[in-house]
Amino acid sequence: MSNLAPTKREVPVNSLASRTGLAAWFRPYVTSTVGSKMLVAVTGLMLTGFVLAHMIGNLKIFAGRTALNDYAAFLKSLGPLLWVARIGLLVVFALHIYLALKLKKRSLEARPINYAYQNTMIASVSSRTMLWTGLAILAFTIFHLAHFTFGWVGPVEANGKMVGNHEPNDAEMPTRHDVYGMVIHGFRQPVVSILYIVAQMLLLMHLGHGIPSTFQSLGLNTPRTQRMIRAVGWLLALVIVAGNIGIVVGVWFDFVKP
Amino acid sequence: MNLTLNVWRQKDRNAAGRMETYKASHISPDMSFLEMLDVVNEDLIKTGKEPIAFDHDCREGICGMCSLMINGMAHGPERATATCQLHMRKFRDGDEITIEPFRARAFPVLRDLVTDRGALDRIVQAGGFVGVNTGGAPDGNEIPIPRERQETAMDAAACIGCGACVAACKNASAMLYVSAKVGHLVNLPQGQPERQQRVRAMVAQHDHEGFGHCTNQYECQAACPKEISVGFIAQLNREYLHSSFGFAEREDSSTGVG
Ligand code: FES
Fold it and tell me: ipTM of this complex > 0.90?
């Protein structure tokens, strides 16, 4: 074989220049279309995991006042851990939204003059409305936090007197917050409960495209599994949303006793 | 057949374009779409008007030169068919047909329906190649290739580079094209030495040309005259992840492609 020195090749800008460190290695994941999409997918999966856990935890409401309030008190008792989780969630949420908006801007710029005759062959409605369902979910999340987490939407009646939505008012343990009563009061208001149901429908649409889409973006999709992944994605989305709506409906029809 | 055509007319790259309406009369249902435009152009020339410029070459569905957005569908309503192979019998007498160029920032209009799709060639130049030894021609079948791999590579290699995927994509992304070129080479032993650099370089070039990102809506697959599967986009994503790990991390002059 020849012992000529190999020709030196110029490393492309976006290539694998690991010698310049971890930051350079990671940069394409934030800057490239393929890499950004993967981060949107990973953060999306994390958020899906959160809403799933959130839904399962909240189902404790069907086990009664003590069970739900115990669960709420347990979460509160985590203290600093709870804050780590909250801040982590906030970062993931922010990253998901930031990257998605950045990519959206890019794709708008990629076609400055749109077609006079617009047509769609197979793209689903949910895939074409991701931006709008996503932004609506963001707005709903802010309302939801104001409503239940910060208790700004109140006041409520508890133990015969009006108290702030978020004050300690558990009839059994007066020192702690009665999450159970708060939820019942919240969903007894028609406007609020309908808002929650509409938001869940939008979440269903968002996750219906989003969950299967993450598998494609992360390269886990194959022509053989594509249909299965789509079905499982929609099913998971449906389970999350059905569980959440179940709580609202449960309050309406007194499955959740006041 | 008699038809009404709404056609995009644009003098040159810098001129502002507009839609114009033409009558196409005495069209045989056996004509191809391009032959129909030939007839319209004959009439235009006879009346001293500028004929409609459109791209074409082989007219047998193998070169990828023809294009056209027909009623908002790349290469028209028939699946798995390039415009040159689309026949007028797919339309009805009296139909109104809107014909526009493939729209993308990366595909500037040169004249009427003719676009510059050189961006796709530059993506191939960035990484769509393999290294070969000079000298005598190697023996046939010297390298064993499993049949499935060979077929998969052939499926990807069926891409004729027409750009319909970009035109049909809601984000003007060329991801199906890039994935076909990557999939063609990565599924063969000959494509292995450049495997990790190739995917990074081609995606970087894709982004540099101003194409959008993939949102997994699969309009590209529906529009593709060669029915390239979006499974190749999943493989591309897998390759992109793969390119971050392994030996290429140690890239220096000795592992570069000569
Ligand atoms: S003209 Fe060659 S593919 Fe249509």
Answer: yes
